[in-house]
Amino acid sequence: MALTQEQKSHFEARGYLPYHRVLSDGELQALRQRSEEIARGQADHVPPRYVQLEAAFREEEDAEVDRLDQVRKMTHLCYFDPLFEAVARKAEIVDVIEDLLGPNIKLYCDQLMMKARYHGTVTDWHQDSVAWPQFAPQDHVSCWVALDDATVENGCMTVLPGSHKWGPINPAHKARFLENSLIPEPEPVELPAGSCLFHHGLNFHRTGANPTPNRRRGLALHYLRSETMYLGAGSEEQRLMTECEKPRGEFRFMLIRGREFDGRV
Ligand SMILES: O=C(O)CCC(=O)C(=O)O
């Protein structure tokens, strides 16, 4: 067991758990540098379609703004880049995932959220698992690893304690759900670079804008049990995932620990 009983109870009751440092200074430096190379288009091992700009720059890039400050997120880096894959496989992280999901673990996908200085925009309240209805059961666990200090000012994660217990909320009813008086106070989770936050796939969370001169990068790693049923591609994201897997032959998500099961993810 990586987690104490107190930490496990915290996760079960509140749907999230701030956790200690999992990356060294050297690892952080290497990951930041690699993220910059990829964002600047200097790394041809990551297809450019996995690099998404902030909406303000999607029609046309702004020659006056550093390219790094125009990128919103980079997806599936763990499938293409060994430095990022090593984070997804880190024992300190996977031991916790095993405590929460059991011994057979796969990585579904990962997103490096760049939250650019000055230009990073809000990610609104959402439950990750609701965006991924192609899986059953919907019990993902995510680990959000801070690559820079994440603060209220630069758009750290804010969670809604206990919201995972309400089940999947239809996005059409989200606003009414969030306005309900039974909803607890949102809790900002500030994290020093190198530490991380685990959260349940049904836990509501959001991040604010980043008007500061400091970058706030965070690597979101989304894990699921190998026993999970996969009900088929549907979304654009899923289609892109399938493309990621093609070089590896048969379509399977990345096995992180334990074993795979026939007919499952
Ligand atoms: O890092 C962010 O800005 C958003 C992260 C997020 O919403 C997620 O990991 O699901």
Characteristics:
265 residues; alpha+beta; eight-stranded antiparallel β-sheet; four-stranded antiparallel β-sheet; 8 helices; globular
**Ligands bound, unique:** 2-oxoglutaric acid
CATH architecture name: Sandwich
Given the structure, what is the number of helices?
8
* CATH fold node name: Jelly Rolls
Describe this structure as you would to a colleague.
- The protein is α+β, with helices and mostly antiparallel strands and 265 residues long.
- The protein has one domain: Jelly Rolls.
- It is 25% helix and 24% strand.
- It has helices at residues 5-14, 25-39, 55-58, 77-80, 82-88, 91-101, 174-179, 236-245, and strands at 16-21, 51-53, 71-75, 105-113, 123-126, 135-136, 141-146, 157-159, 187-189, 195-200, 205-207, 218-225, 229-230, 254-257.
- The relative contact order is 0.21.
- The model has no long low-confidence stretch (mean pLDDT 92).
- The chain binds 2-oxoglutaric acid (AKG).
